[in-house]
Amino acid sequence: MSQKAIELILMRQLASSLAMPIFLVDPLGNLLFYNEPAERLLGRRYDETGEMSMKEWRTLFAPIAEDGSPVPGEVLPLSIALHKHRAAHLAFWLKGPDGISKKIGATAFPLEGQGARLLGAVGIFWEES
Amino acid sequence: MKVTLWGTRGSLAAPGPETIRYGGNTSCVEVRGHGRALLVLDAGTGSGILAMVALRLGANAAFEPLYEPAREIHIWGPPSPTLDLRTRLARYLSPPLFPLRLRDLPCDLMLHNVPPERFEVGGFEVEAELVCHPGSTVGYRISEGNRSLAYLPDHEPALGVRAFPAKPEWTSGFDLAADADLLIHDAQYTTEEYQQRIGWGHSATRDALAFATLSGARRLVSFHHDPTHDDVMLDRIDAAARAAGDVTFALIAGTEGATFEV
Question: B9 CA to chain A: closest CA distance, Å?
Fold first, then answer.
């Protein structure tokens, strides 16, 4: 496996040091890394799963809208960041591993490297009161 | 390839009797291959020594071409999303920091951002990648035939990594150094010094060794010595590195004037 772009490596290192849940995805939406706080959102440990395909992590991450319906994938901030190349925000409900639903705010932004290369996107989450 | 170190010091030149064995000049490495091209990696104060040696040998003096009006000179450097290489160099090479301006050079000076793909310079195949160091900084892999030199003089791959080294795919500079015949790598600090300088963009010798082991390099040249380290101190650092455990490569402390066949 070849080395990731330095921008992704540095983003992972920053995410590893922060206390807020962070996802780092590649341009196809595959989950390259999630930090320890984000492990609570997925109910999995990164050391156990490693990278996950988009299909895999989306089965673990099932946000619910205010009206109780599933949030479509294409309106998730990470999806907008990747496909529309802009920052996006959304609030939704997410059931944790403890079975309790919490309102979560999510903001995502694309990672654009030198030469306009789309390297992926970053999603940051926090619990909304 | 023949690789010669003309400057091994990092950050600031430190010439004097206390640094005479390892050298006090800042980074400059000469690379010659089978062709006629002379590749110079970095133009620290060691480039002055390269110029003097070239003149003494009566060869094509290293910097004379800069003063020849019809001569094409190419300089490659790291890309930046905001300023081109000429603008960045001109900021430094202009009064009051330097008496001459880039535009005062009579040669036909061509400045290039290193491209993201491999490129060829005078028979050498060159790869450049952004690496972990403040600002826009690249490391290089220079290949000729099946031989390769990796040059990472300003590199802090351990920054933010809880247990260095990480997996290869998450390690800055790995692709450049993978299985290199010769790796010239930043080893500026002792382990204790590094704890006070995290994020400054340079490596502890311990991390340079770990990086070389991970990358599978065959020879490691410790480089970019701290300007406060005299010869005695560098002897101690080198001895400690050798005593730290088995390494899978030849460890060589970078000294000014040292030459390597690759």
Answer: 25
